[in-house]
Task: structure prediction
Amino acid sequence: MRLKTFVYILLFAAFIVASLFLYDKQFGAVSFFTISFFFFYLAYREHRKEKKPLSGKKRRKG
Result:
């Protein structure tokens, strides 16, 4: 398992604990709002991977 995957799993576990606490305090919508940022970040990273050119060379202008 890569370190980055392990960190994501730890962050998700911490989110679960925090969301249980927030639900207990009647702030359940806050947990959905915060996890949406995490999922947006993951989707943005995947989108950026797809947009990169296959060859590492930059095109010359002119």
Notes: The mean pLDDT is 84. The radius of gyration is 18 Å.
